[in-house]
C-alpha cells in the first residue's frame, strides 16, 4: 500500500458558463484515478456535503479532514479516544478539546489561502464552484474491508449563479455518487428545504432510471428495489441549532434531534406527506444531527481560524458527529445494485455527467414548473371538454347536423370554453395566459376539423340505417318479378304472395323515398346522391355479411350438425376416432 | 376621533384542519370593523410580516408596536427624535437606546404569556397560526391624509403543519391585503427563498386575475397595469446578517444591502432571471434591509425579554428600519386600482378568502409540480409523435394499407414510443412512470381507433382517383351508342369518330378494371364493391360539379360575354344603360 500523501482539493466537476453546462475536469479525474489505483482498495465510500451557499459546508469538511488525518496518523490514540468518556453535558466540567482538533495546530486550514484544506472564509462571496474532492482518499475499515473513503464538497445551492440545469446536475450527481450525503442546513429543517432536496433527488433518480433502462436493454437490468430506492444514507445536518438547553444531557439533545427530524420528515406526523414519503422511499437510511452555533467570532471575515475561539458545545457535538459519520454510518458506494470499485468510479462519473445532460432540459424552477403545469392542465382540460361536448352533441344527432349549424355549435362551445378559461388558475403573467389561450385555440381548430369531417360523414350516412329495409324491398321486388314469370300464371297462391310482396316493397319505397325527400329538403340534391351512394355501399356490405353467414351455415355448422346427428348411426371408420370413442366408453 | 385603546392581537384568519381549509374569524373581523368605523379613517395601510417559522417575525412586530405606540403617545418627542442625529457607526461612541424602545418598560411584551404584544417565545414550537392583526389601528399621516395603519402577523411558512392549499391561501392573502409586505428571511437572500416567495405571489396573482375577470364581466374592469403589477411594496428583511464590518458607516452598510438585493433579485445580474423579472413585474417597489444578529441570549428559552440584552448594533439598524417602514415607505392599500377603505376592508377580506379557495386546488409542492409537469409533457409528447408518425405513413400510402399491416404498423410505433418513453425524464417513483405509460397507452388506443378508421376509409377510396377517367369513359360510351343510331350509317366521319371513342372507353375500362383487380387481389371482393360504391359517389359528385360549372358558364359568363361582344353593335334600349353610356361618353 502506498504511503499517505498530504493531499489537496481537486475540482472534479466544473461549470462551463458559456455553454451553460457542467463538465468533468479530466485532469483532476486522472489524478484521482491514479491515486486510487496506487492505494489498491477495491471499494470506495463517498461522503459529500451539500446545501445552501455560505452555510459552512467547507468549514465542516475541514474538520472532517482533521479528524481523518489524525486517525490515520495516530491509530492507537484514535482507538483509545473512541473508548474514552467525555465529561457529561450539563455538568460543571468543560468539554476538553479532542486531540484530533488540536493535533494539527491551533488554526484551521481553510481559513487562509493555502491549499491545506477546503477553502472556506467569512465574507459574502461563495467559495466552492462545481464539485471538489479531496485528492487523498482515506483508507478505512468498513465491514472488515479496506475501503477508500473520499470527501466531496459541492458548490453552494441557490446562489443565483448557476442555471437550473447546472444546479440540477451538480446536486443530482452528488446524490448519485455519495454513499453518505450530508444535507447542511441552517437553523432548522423546513418543508421548503426538504422539498428542494427532494427535487434534486428526483432529478438524480430520473438519471438513474435512464441508466437502468440502458442496462435492461443490454440484458443486465438491476433489481426493482435498486431502482426504486437508489440512494444510501442521508443526514440532515442542522447548523446553528438553538434549542439545546444548557442543562440537558447528550441523550436528551439526541432525542430532540430525532423529534425534529420526525416532525418534518415523518410521513405519519405530517399534513402534506407525499414528499416525506418519497424521501423515505428513495433513501435506505435517513438521519438528523443538530450542531449548536460555533460562536459569532467564527463568522467574521477577520477570524484567523484559531480553534480555541470555537464554542465548546459545538465541538462536543462535532466530535460525536464525526465519529458517527466515519464509523457507524458509513458503507461502500453502490449504484443500481453493484458496488462502485476504484476502477469503475471514473467511468461512472463520466457516464452520469452525460446522463444528467440529457435529463437537464427537464430542470425547472418552482414557478416555471407551476406555470408549465397549470398551462398544460388548462390545455388538456380544454381539449377534454371540447371533445366531451362534441361527443354529446354527436350522440344527440346521430345523423349529423347541417354544416352551418355545426359551425354555430362549435363557435358556442369555444365561447363557453373561453369563459371557463377565464376562471382557470394559471400561474404566470397575463401574457402567459394569452399565449395559453392561443395554443388552446389552435388545438381546438384541429379538433374542430376532425369533428366537422365526422359530421359530414354522418350527414352522408343519413340513409344508411335503411339499408336492411332496402335489401328486403329489393328481395321482395325480385321475388315478385320472378313469380311473374315462373308461377303467377298457373298458381293463385303465387299470385297472392306476389301481391303481398309488391305491397311490401311499395311501402318500403315510399318510406325510404320520404326520408330521402326530407334529406333533400334539408341538405340539397348533392347530399341525397351522396347518401344514396352510402346506402348502396351499406347494402352491398350487408349482402356480403349475409352471404358469408349463409355460406358458413352451409359448409361448417350444418355439416357438423348433420355429422353429429348421424354419428351414433354410422360406424366410425378411422382408428383414431375409434380410440376416442373407446375412451368415452371407459 | 376615538381615544386610543391598548389593543391586543386578533386572529383574523384561522385554519380549519378537518376540512383542510382556511376561514375568516367573523368575531375578530367584526371587532376590527367596528374599531375602524370608530376611528373614522377613510383609507387603510397594512404592514405585514411573513417568512419561515421561528425566524423572529413576532419579535419584529413587537418592536414595531413599541415604536408606533410611543410615537402616538409622544408626538412632539417623536418629531424631535426623527431629526436627532445618532452617533456615527464605526466610531467609539455606543449607540444609545432610543426612547421608543425603553419608554414602555425594560422587558418586551411578547416574551411572556400576557396579551400585550404578538406572542413570541424561544422554543421549538411555532407560535402564530393563521393570520393575526393588531386590534388597534394606528392613525398616521400618509401623503397628508389620516390613514389607519394595521399590523399583520402571519403563520410561519414551511412548518409542515399546513396543507399546500392552506399555506398558499394564507400567504397569498397576506400579499393581496398588504400595502407593505415584509419577507423575513434568515441569514441571506437565496434563490430558493425568492422562488418560494414568487410561488405565493403567483398564486395571489391568479386569485386577483379571477377577481378582475369577474369585475370585467360586470363591466368595471381594472386597468391592465393594475392586474399585471398587483402588489405594492416588498421588503426582503434579512435577519442575523453577518457581513457588516465593525468599522463601516451606516451608508456603507446600506450599500452592501443594495448589493445583496441586486445579486439575487436583479434580472441583469442573474443567470436564471425569469423569477426575478416576475417579481419586479409584480411589485411597484422592491427593497432590502439587513439586521445584524440581536445576540445569542435572545434566542434562549430562558430570555426574560430584557431590552438591554439586545445587541446595540441590532437596535441601531432596527431604529433605522422602523422609521423607513412607517415614514418613507408606506402608502395606502390599493387592490386592482381602487383604494381599500375602512368600509371595504372586511368585504375584500371575505371575497378573497373564497377566491383563494377556488384557486387552491392548483396549489402544489415543488416535487408535485415537477411530477405533474413531466408527466403531462410526456403524455403530450407521446401523442404528438404517434400522430406525426401516423401522418407520415398516411402520406406515404395515400390509398391506405391493409388492416393487418396497419395493426402491425401501429404496434411497431407504440413499441418505439415505449422505448423512447424509457429515456424520458419523469419526476417520480417507478409507479408514477408506470401509471403515466398506462395513461399514454389509453390515449394511444383512441388515436389508434381514429387512424384505423381513416385507413379503412382510404382503402375504400382506392378507386376514387379514377372517377374523372370513368366519367370520360362513360361519356365516350354514350357518344358511341348515340352515333350508332344517329349518324354512323350515313357518315364515315361519324363512324371513324365512333371507333376512336370505342378505343378510348375500352382503354379506360381495361385500365380501371386492372386497378380494380389489383384491389381485389390485395383486399378481397367486399373491399372492391365498397371501392366501387365510393367511385360511383365520386362520379356523381363530379357530375354535379361539372354540371354546375356548365350551368354557370351558360347563364352568367356566356351571356355576359356575348352581351359585351354585342354591345358596340346593338343600340342600347333601356334608359338606364343610356344614361350610363352617356356618362361614359362625357
From TrEMBL, chains A, B:
InterPro entries per record = G_GB1_RHD3_dom, Guanylate-bd_N, P-loop_NTPase
Which Gene3D superfamilies does the UniProt entry name for this protein? P-loop containing nucleotide triphosphate hydrolases (3.40.50.300)
Lipid biosynthesis as a keyword? no
What Pfam families does the record tag this protein with?
A: GBP
What is the name attached to this protein's record?
GB1/RHD3-type G domain-containing protein
Can you tell me which family this protein belongs to? Belongs to the TRAFAC class dynamin-like GTPase superfamily. GB1/RHD3 GTPase family.
Give the record's keywords alphabetically. GTP-binding, Nucleotide-binding
- The record places domain GB1/RHD3-type G at 41-330
Residue stretches spanning the membrane: none
Q: Which species does the entry assign this protein to?
A: Durusdinium trenchii
Q: Is the keyword Nucleotide-binding assigned to this protein?
A: yes
